[in-house]
TrEMBL record:
Residues 29-47 have a biased composition (Low complexity). Keywords: Signal. PROSITE patterns: PROKAR_LIPOPROTEIN. Belongs to the leucine-binding protein family. It holds the Pfam family Peripla_BP_6. Residues 29-58 are annotated as: Disordered. The lineage of its organism: Bacteria, Bacillati, Bacillota, Clostridia, Lachnospirales. Residues 64-414 form the Leucine-binding protein domain. Coiled coil: none annotated. Gene3D superfamilies: 3.40.50.2300. Residues 1-24 form the signal peptide. This is ABC transporter substrate-binding protein. It comes from Candidatus Copromonas faecavium. InterPro entries: BCAA_transport, Leu-bd, Peripla_BP_I.
Length: 426
């Protein structure tokens, strides 16, 4: 079913209508688009193909409607502010550099509550009420799994701000994700712990979600098949757990050299770290504490003391790098746009790169009638072939067939006074 023929999946929504934010990109004279990190994003424009020539348009720029599904209420509302600041920062750079040639972008922010049960209503509003040409959003893989079929049916692209491998294992043809999967993160973390640090005994605690379980399964598989090792212990946890002493003692009995804490709630990580120091030894002097990308977020500064956090390592796409002009620009523009004036972290970087992904695809598509029934289809084709340099690294969606684009992650480490630095790969 084409986007223009999209039928209502739920009753009309009245409470969710949000004021749109129209942001305009300036035109540029170059034939190639320079993305956030200055990469070559050129590709054959579909408007140059004979079969599509009739759909090409010239003259005034056309408006591409972008639905942004993010938490705007509840305990995760801060992430909605981060989404908006990231998009504002990206559009500032795009406008200043004249990167968007043939289109302007209009953003409609819709509250998905940051919860799985909020995803269908948000997706319905974006597709049915707003009539989006493309959507950005959802911070949880379970939310993408719920709304993904709706975007498939409508043939409208969705740029997911998620890392769960299940998001790209469903065969969705209209989904791209804007970071590496948890599996890529897990492999990178093991490279650091086993190959770089030389550890052979690792313990793991993981959240009992699809993403957490998949990451733990993959870590066990890679350890066994690639390194001939086994975890000394593996335990699942819920978001309500408030004590990890039993799990810590199991790792202590197994003489673990490092603890992998793969969770969603940053405060739980601090509790686990305290349990280690109370029942076992000092972190990180005696036991290295590692986590998933949740450990990279700015929320760590709200739930951890700086002294506790120093030395904690994590796999992530984005790490601040003052030697990279594109990252410096991202930091400055984000802080200017953010209501709290904070430095950006991993999730804002994903959203920021998503905008450059879209701009790259639109430039590669060239002038095309946004009112055509197949506009979103043609746009999706270009999204799936886009290559550009973002603040997380080099994206090449043509290298995969499942909507992934980022194949290499990094390992970051928390330093003094809530600073971060890259420790792997050098």
């Amino acid at each position: 079913m084409m986007k223009k023929k999209w039928m209502k999946l739920l009753a009309p929504l009245t409470a969710m209508a949000m004021a749109g934010m129209a942001l305009t990109g300036c035109s540029g004279g170059a034939e190639e688009t320079t993305a956030a990190g200055g990469g070559d994003t050129s590709a054959a424009s579909s408007s140059e193909e004979g079969e599509d020539a009739g759909e090409a348009v010239t003259g005034e720029k056309q408006v591409v409607k972008v639905g942004v599904m993010c938490p705007m209420s509840g305990t995760s509302a801060r992430f909605g502010e981060l989404y908006q600041a990231s998009i504002d920062a990206a559009m500032k750079a795009i406008e200043e550099d004249g990167l968007l040639k043939d289109y302007t972008l209009e953003f409609e922010y819709v509250d998905d509550k940051g919860a799985t049960d909020g995803a269908p209503a948000a997706a319905t509003y974006v597709l049915d009420q707003y009539g989006a040409d493309i959507a950005i959003g959802h911070m949880l893989t379970t939310m993408v799994l719920v709304s993904g079929p709706m975007f498939e049916e409508a043939q409208v692209p969705l740029l997911g701000i998620v890392s769960g491998p299940a998001s790209v294992s469903q065969g969705f043809e209209y989904l791209c994700i804007e970071t590496g999967t948890d599996l890529i993160q897990a492999e990178t973390l093991l490279q650091y712990l086993v190959e770089e640090k030389g550890y052979e005994r690792l313990g793991m605690i993981h959240i009992n979600t699809e993403g957490g379980s998949s990451a733990a399964d993959h870590i066990e598989k890679v350890m066994k098949e690639k390194y001939g090792l086994e975890l000394v212990s593996r335990d699942a946890m819920t978001t309500e757990d408030t004590d990890f002493t039993a799990q810590v003692l199991k790792m202590k009995d197994g003489d673990a050299q490092a603890v992998i804490f793969w969770g969603l709630n940053q405060s739980q990580g601090n509790v686990c770290m305290k349990n280690i120091e109370q029942s076992w030894g000092k972190v990180p002097e005696e036991i290295l504490f590692a986590g998933g990308t949740s450990m990279a977020q700015n929320q760590m500064t709200e739930t951890w003391d700086a002294a506790d956090l120093e030395g904690v390592v994590f796999p992530v796409g984005y790490i601040p790098d003052e030697s990279n002009p594109a990252i410096v620009r991202f930091i400055e523009d984000f802080k200017e746009a953010d209501v709290l004036g904070q430095d950006p972290a991993d999730v804002p970087a994903r959203v920021y790169d998503a905008v450059f992904h879209l701009v790259t695809a639109l430039n590669n598509l060239g002038p095309y009638d946004v009112e055509a029934e197949d506009f979103s289809v043609k746009l999706n084709e270009q999204l799936r072939q886009a290559s550009f340099d973002g603040v997380q690294g080099h994206f090449d969606y043509s290298a995969f067939d499942n909507g992934e684009g980022l194949a290499q992650m990094s390992i970051g480490e928390w330093g003094p006074d809530y600073t971060q630095r890259k420790v792997y790969p050098q």
